[in-house]
Design a protein that fits this description.
Length: about 270
């Protein structure tokens, strides 16, 4: 899940700027974690300690009320409502990546992804977005090729992944729905040459930058074998002690280590695409 968090932090300064290039400073003084990181950590905390997702989301919101949540989630969490609100927004997709490391089967991952989504995003599109991202991360971390990931996501979720970034970039605009941001984020991963390139691809579309980089980064981390050490260290330094401790515990529990190798993209056992 560190790949998701790093994508969020890198993308945070591009939110609302309509960045249409891959040529930008990767991390700046203003780069920070947002609600994408907070809720990803909340999911990880729930999985580690058997907490109800609704309770974790409420508690993390109370701890980080100014992290940049969508207005509907903010109202839901601030009033401690327990009923979902039929959202199809990409909030369900950006927070789901930890389930792909806990689950041992694809069916199990899909079922758990649904549970993380339904707490708030019980619309079929909100569930589909979360499941698609969780499936892509699971397939990537278990040796699936990019073509296998593409085919599965297209056939299982009816997402169209044949457009290229160069085709999408000129006209793509900010869209926080799952149906119009999750497929594009997956394409950003599919066209990438490494973790950093996947994040740059996602941001360069000029859309919901932090969330799309969060999604693409989650898949890229799994596929390329980690987040490059320099990025991982810089991002971890931007988390507070509470968030960092959950990330540490989750990575240690699921055999990922805290800071991955310096050049994870060079893993020799990656199957060819």
């Amino acid at each position: 899940m560190l790949g998701a968090i790093a994508g969020d932090v890198i993308g945070s300064v591009h939110e609302g700027t309509r960045t249409k290039t891959k040529d930008f400073p990767l991390l700046t003084a203003g780069s920070r974690f947002t609600d994408d990181t907070v809720l990803t950590v909340a999911v990880a905390d729930s999985l580690l300690h058997g907490r109800e997702y609704v309770d974790a989301f409420h508690d993390y919101f109370q701890e980080y009320p100014d992290a940049g949540y969508g207005s509907t989630f903010w109202l839901w969490a601030s009033s401690r409502r327990r009923e979902p609100y039929k959202s199809w927004g990409n909030g369900s997709a950006m927070r789901v990546s930890p389930v792909a490391y806990v689950g041992t089967t694809l069916d199990g991952v899909l079922a758990e992804a649904r549970r993380t989504a339904e707490v708030t995003h019980d619309h079929e599109e909100g569930i589909r977005g979360a499941q698609a991202v969780a499936a892509a991360v699971f397939l990537a971390r278990t040796g699936g090729t990019k073509e296998q990931i593409r085919q599965y996501i297209e056939e299982r979720f009816d997402y169209f992944l044949d457009e290229t970034l160069s085709e999408l970039r000129p006209t793509y605009q900010f869209d926080a729905s799952c149906q119009w941001s999750v497929p594009q984020s997956i394409i950003a991963f599919l066209e990438s040459t490494g973790y950093e390139d996947a994040v740059r691809n996602a941001i360069s579309l000029g859309g919901d930058a932090d969330t799309m980089a969060c999604i693409a980064g989650a898949i890229a981390e799994a596929y390329y074998g980690g987040v490059p050490a320099a990025i991982a260290e810089a991002v971890l330094a931007r988390l507070d002690d509470r968030l960092r401790s959950v990330v540490r515990e989750f990575r240690e529990q699921y055999g990922m280590g805290l800071v991955p190798p310096a050049e994870p993209e060079a893993a020799a056992d990656r199957p060819p695409d």
